Amino acid sequence: METNQNTGVANEAAAPKKKNYTFVIILALLVVAGGTWGYTKYNHGLHHEETDDAQIDANISPVIPRISGYITEIRVKDNQQVHKGDTLIVLDNRDELIRLEQANAALEGSRGNLVVANATTSASVASGSTYIANVSVAEAQIEEAKVSVWRANQDFARYENLIKDHSITQQEYEQALANKQKAERQLQVLVTQKNAAERQAKAATSQTAATSRQTSVVNANIKARQADIDNAKLNLSYTIITAPTDGHVSKVNAQLGQYLQAGQSLFSIISNAQPWVVANFKETQLTKMKLGQHVKIHIDAYPDHVFDATIASFSPATGARFALLPPDNASGNFVKVVQRLPVRIEFKEVKDEFISRLRPGMNVFVDVELN
Question: Which of 171-185, 273-287, 349-363 comes out lowest in average pLDDT?
């Protein structure tokens, strides 16, 4: 028995060991898989440009009061959907109503001044016509008086010769002299009256011109008062703050009774219009990129859905140029940093149900096909 056992042990020791190929197979598979993955990534890199420095963007309209005032109503809540023209906030309008009444009263006063100015102008025109007529009458009377003076002079000359021959009485001579002097004085009076009428006509003409200018001034004042009314109505309409576009309201930073300054930013409305993607590519990635190239977009919020898009435009400058403090390489030591250029990418599928779920600021991964 012992001999048989020893023989079995010797046979087992003499038998060849079996080789384990599992490790070799796994290593080969890993090498093949790694090589395939590496070749795929290399080939993909030749025809694609990718970046994860990209976000969803959309139109964001700020809600800003045009006038100052106290809040009396707030008709929206955080994240509420609104439509263009919907009332968001109502301000106290009592001051604006008073200003509108004052403007209306000023307009009525200006219109009354216009009536007075027109009446004054009409009176001035009538007076001027009267004075001009008086001048014409005076001229006619002067011509008649000149004839009377000529006749009186002729009569006096005859009577003066007759008195020398004592053909007439002294009384008749004196009567002829009196008639001559009376005619001359009457002529002088008429000339004086004519001069006075001319001066009055000139004054009336000047007064008419002045009242006409006053009418123009009053008309201009009426236009100014009407402009005040329009301005008051406009400011009154500003007491109701409405939505500038369709969209969703952000956090409402306003409280009842709060005093708002004109131009103070309250909150924003994110427009319902189609969003887009802003991808920041390195300047070294832009060599083969151009407008219209097809883009595949992967959004972190929806990893199982791929969005089709196209390159719409390139920024006219790198992002650093639009920074609050743009770098100035001329000051200090220069360190070269690869810059990034914002690229606008627009979605193709406008009616995609996922488009309405996108929100500005969401992170995305962009893959551009370089054709």
Answer: 171-185
8 A C-beta contact, residue 238 and residue 66: yes
Residue among 116, 103, 129 at smallest CA distance from 217:
116
What is the tens place of the pLDDT at every residue in 48-64? Answer: 899 999 999 999 999 99
Residue found under tokens 């599992």 = 22
CA atoms of 146 and 208, how far apart (whole Å): 34
Terminal-to-terminal C-alpha distance of the chain: 82
C-alpha 199 chain-centroid distance: 56
What residues form DSSP beta bridges with 267?
A: 63
CB-CB neighbours of 223 under 10 Å: 12
In sequence order, which residues have a C-beta less than 8 Å from that of residue 149 and are 6 or more positions away? 180, 183, 184, 186, 187
pLDDT, one tens digit per residue, over 218-264 is 888 889 999 999 999 999 999 999 999 999 999 998 999 999 999 99
Domains for the chain: give ranges and CATH numbers: 62-92+239-268 (2.40.50.100), 94-234 (1.10.287.620), 274-371 (2.40.30.170)
Exposure string of 40-49, with b = 16+ CB inside 10 Å and e = fewer, is eeeeeeeeeb
Is pTM beyond 0.70? Reply is no
Q: How many CB atoms lie within 10 A of CB 270?
A: 19
Pairing of strands 247-249, 259-260: unpaired
- With contact defined as beta carbons under 8 Å apart, do 87 and 241 qualify? yes
Q: What is the DSSP letter of 165?
A: T
